[in-house]
What does this fold into?
Amino acid sequence: MHISRFAQTRLAIFERTIVWLDQQATRKTLQKKTPSHLMTGLRGEDAAYFHLRRLGYTIVARRWRSAKLRGDIDLIGWDGEWLCFIEVKTRTSRSFQPAEAAVDYEKKRMLTRMAREYLHNLENPDRIPVRFDVVSVYFPDGKPEFEIFCGAFDWK
It folds into this structure.
């Protein structure tokens, strides 16, 4: 899917605005500080959102939660005909194990249960091709680097 130059420019402006607003909110907040690892994760999710948009994904949900289940799905979006449930893992460096290695058995189990709950609310869910993707985001020098694993795991 191709995104027009105009749409790319609008997306870039939107991304810079969101980053600036987040920085301002972080600097001016008087609330209890959020732990740095959680801030890194949120920053990675935002970066992945914009990166996937640039690649042509249509993101329909961010940090989706169910009232019945514990946890959340970082991003849900369409990649062509595929409905993708996307887990984002963020690291500040590549020094240790790869970010995607953090998607273990329990995380996969939680994501598949959440995906079933999300699909339950759609019409004809059995006709929708579903894929589970993992996006690894690294911030080695401040600028994000991405690795996308399409179909990283299945329902089993």
